[in-house]
Amino acid sequence: MPAIVWDAIGEKKYELGVDHGVLAVVEGTTYGTPVAWNGLISVTESPSGAEANKNYADNIEYANILSAEEYGATIEAYTYPDEFKPCDGCAEIVEGVTIGQQNRAKFGFSYRTKIGNDTEGQEHGYQIHMIYGAQASPSERAYNSVNDSPEINTLSWEITTTPIPVPGFKPTASLVLDSTVLGPEKMKIIEDTLYGTEGETGTAAKFLLPSEIADLLNATTPQG
Asked: What is the pLDDT along the chain (224 residues), one digit of tens a residue?
């Protein structure tokens, strides 16, 4: 039996960065056309739940049942796409005039993080994160006087989620695609669909559900 080896070459991995933000507002029962979300600063995932609920009988611990797990996150950015306004409780009564405290639309959100290692650095790979059934909570906005050290205002939103069905599994509100596992061919198929393609034969972007991602990847897997 081989012995355990620590810090082997190529296995010192780490994650960093955030980019390629994508927003897809829910329209009825489907996700609308995805749009770019520029100016992302950070995405902080905040799962909760899965708390132990111990039950006792016969003077011993009889069962340990975990509570339901919930997915939440905080998005911080310098700006947001206009399509996000309904998700932030805003509505335009006439062009250029916006009111708040309106119903908040649900949305899907995607972003990318890099995977680095000790041999390839930041170019080792990346992950595409998908968030489903999200709703944004009201957030503070501070406007400060311009001074000799001006800073750009940052915006942030705490989001909660409602899990969506996944055939054969429990419902989920999050999904991660790992390029170091899937490889460039399968990642290109996902990205061409999620981000869209240009040219005469280009296709419109589409926010992918877990089952659709599985179908696309399974279609590229050789049957043997």
From this structure: 789 988 888 888 888 999 999 999 999 889 999 999 999 999 999 887 778 888 888 888 888 887 778 889 999 999 999 999 999 999 999 988 999 989 999 999 999 999 998 888 888 999 999 999 999 987 777 777 788 788 888 899 999 999 999 999 999 999 999 999 999 999 999 999 999 998 888 899 999 999 999 999 988 765 54
Provide the 3-class DSSP secondary structure of residue 59.
coil
Task: Please tell me the distance from the alpha carbon of residue 134 to that of residue 107, in angstroms, as a whole number.
Answer: 5
Distance CA 192, CA 34 (A): 12
As given in the structure block, the two tokens for residue 107 are 């949305």
Contact between 62 and 69 under an 8 Å Cβ cutoff? The reply is no
Using CA atoms, how far apart are residues 38 and 29, in angstroms rounded to an integer?
26
Nearest to 25 by CA among 128, 101, 93, 104: 104
Stated as kind and residue range, the H or E segment containing 191 is: helix 179-195
For residues 131 and 159, the answer to whether their CB atoms sit within 8 Å is yes
Identify any residues that bridge with 43 across adjacent strands, giving them in sequence order: 75
CA atoms within 13 A on the CB side of 25: 15
Sequence-ordered alpha helix ranges (H) in 53-96: none
Angle (CA) 28 188 13, round 5°: 105
